[in-house]
Design goal:
Layout: E1 2-11, E2 17-22, H1 35-38, E3 47-52, E4 63-68, H2 70-102, H3 106-133, E5 140-144
Antiparallel strand pairs: 1-2, 1-4, 2-3, 4-5
């Protein structure tokens, strides 16, 4: 279980709590909340805001402790790191197989297939990220710190 501090900055009309947290420097330009967001060191990187559902009563300016299960962190890491590599490899294999049927250069079609597989996997991740942004973030407010 990963725990991290954040600050309540507001509320949405549907009752969700808006929290703010420093984003990890390892995230670079990424604005997607993920496992590395949860373990960012205080005072480093830009601020990121999340909207979370909670059954607890919290106030604006209050510090809270967020919780992300290890399972969710592993799923995020799998998606971000392994899916593009799998797309690249599977695309290269498909390109190599197609080259055999079409009697074309194996290297050229393997490279083209690998690039297509990588691009498709990155597009799928982006689509998944946008779709996930409309759902509840897996992080939950564990307890109030103030």
């Amino acid at each position: 279980m990963i725990e991290e501090e954040a600050i309540v900055v507001g509320f949405e009309k549907d009752g969700r709590v808006v929290i703010e947290k420093q984003q990890n420097a390892a995230c670079g330009q990424c604005a997607t909340p993920c496992a590395s967001f949860q373990v960012s060191p205080p005072g480093k990187g830009k601020r990121i805001t999340l909207s979370l559902e909670t059954g607890q009563t919290v106030e604006i300016g209050e510090r809270v402790l967020l919780n992300l299960s290890s399972k969710d962190a592993l799923q995020a890491a799998f998606s971000i790191y392994l899916l593009p590599v799998a797309g690249l490899v599977l695309g290269a294999i498909a390109g190599h197989a197609a080259a055999g049927y079409l009697a074309l250069n194996d290297d050229a079609l393997s490279t083209l297939g690998g690039l297509c597989g990588l691009i498709l996997s990155l597009w799928a991740l982006r689509h998944q990220s946008r779709k996930a942004g409309q759902r509840q973030t897996p992080a939950v407010i564990l307890r109030r710190l103030n």
